[in-house]
Fold this sequence. Notes:
This protein has eleven helices and twelve strands. It is an alpha/beta fold and about 280 residues long. The strands form three sheets. The protein has a five-stranded parallel sheet, sandwiched between helices. Helix 3 (about 60-75) runs parallel beside helix 4 (about 95-105).
Amino acid sequence: MKKGTLYIVATPIGNLEDITFRAVRILREVDLIAAEDTRHSRKLLTHLGISKPLTSYYDHNKELKGSYILDKLKSGLSVALVSDAGTPCISDPGYQLVRAASQAQITVVPIPGPSAFLAALSASGLQTDSFTFEGFLPNRREKRRSKLSTLKEEKRVLIFYESPRRLLSSLTDMLEVFGDRNVVVAREITKVYEELMRGLLSESITHFSESGIRGEVVILVAPDNSPGKIDDKPLGELLRHYLFAEKLSLKDAVKKVSLETGLKRGAVYEEALIISGK
Length: 278
């Protein structure tokens, strides 16, 4: 008997227009859809005009439902794995189903699409050639600070997921462990109230303390680099470009260069003062 195929289907993270033609076709063609939350996924399927059998697959039933889904695949049925939002298997137990399917010599096909952390990174203004995705930090403060301490010397952009309820606690711990680094906090990506807050950790804490927090959050923390060459372009050259070619104010030029390079704003400001002759 020919075995079925497991499709890993990325779905919208907010805006329902963010789904590929291929993803829609696959969802229409498969025999079964395994969803993190069947109620949530049924809303998307209704919007797309798709009626298919659904089964739940999430952290607390992954062993029982994993075996059930695997049996369906072995019997020749095709299955689409979807999460509540974005690309499955990122910060969810989907990878375990993929591993089991692969071990059973079942074909696994990725159907790429939306990803919250990649969308946030692309619009962050931080360097994108080297980064590390750390998922959700531990809930408890002691474990969270311990985890952050292991990342303090990391030279790549750090990316985290966080809930609105814990955002201020996590930002505060980052400030205490990392120091006042540049950060981008992306909230409600692709939704009506989408926001990308760029600035220092201390500024982000003030901002979200005053504005309130809604929706899921992506935090991007710049590395603690020392002044020097960035992508073979000296710091001074970058500053001269923004100060003299684009005629930005000293404050705006410093902020822009600091965000682009991940350098501490104080170090960039000192260099800017020398260049501008102030």
